[in-house]
Amino acid sequence: MKALRLRELPLLVVVLVAGTACRHVRKTPEQRGEGVFLRSCATCHGPDARGTHPAGFKTPPANLTDPKLQDRLGDEGIRDTIRHGKGQMPPFGALLEPEDVDGVVRYLHTLRRAE
């Protein structure tokens, strides 16, 4: 193995610093849920989850920020609706991992509006 030359030292430092700076930052469950929501749910429920966005629905999609709805369904009811669908909402259980569904539920809690 060749000895490290002094002029190669700055390049080595840059490579080491760049390698540590580019590490993937792990997302919180809420952040992961937000990404899943924006990709899978926002088309119908709107990016703000209030259900006022799309046209062409017989009944507007649920306002997912509504505390009464969140309380009535509970976390398991929300998970069940995501997995199996309900009314006009199609099932997403085959498309989403269980941790993605849990992340969406946790994200919806962050959007819960005050009563």
What does this structure look like?
With 115 residues, the protein is mostly helical. It has 5 helices and no strands. It has helices at residues 9-21, 29-40, 42-45, 67-84, 98-111.
Sum this structure up briefly:
This protein has 115 residues and is mainly alpha-helical. It contains five helices and no strands.
Which features does this protein show?
single chain; mainly alpha; 5 helices; 0% strand; elongated
Question: Could you outline the blueprint of secondary structure elements for this entry?
Answer:
Blueprint: H1 9-21, H2 29-40, H3 42-45, H4 67-84, H5 98-111
Helix pairs in contact: 2-5, 4-5
Question: What order do the SSEs take from the amino end to the carboxyl end, as H and E?
Answer: HHHHH
Shape: elongated
Radius of gyration: 22 Å
* Quantity of strands, as a count: 0
Report the sheet with the most strands, covering strand number, pairing sense and barrel closure: none
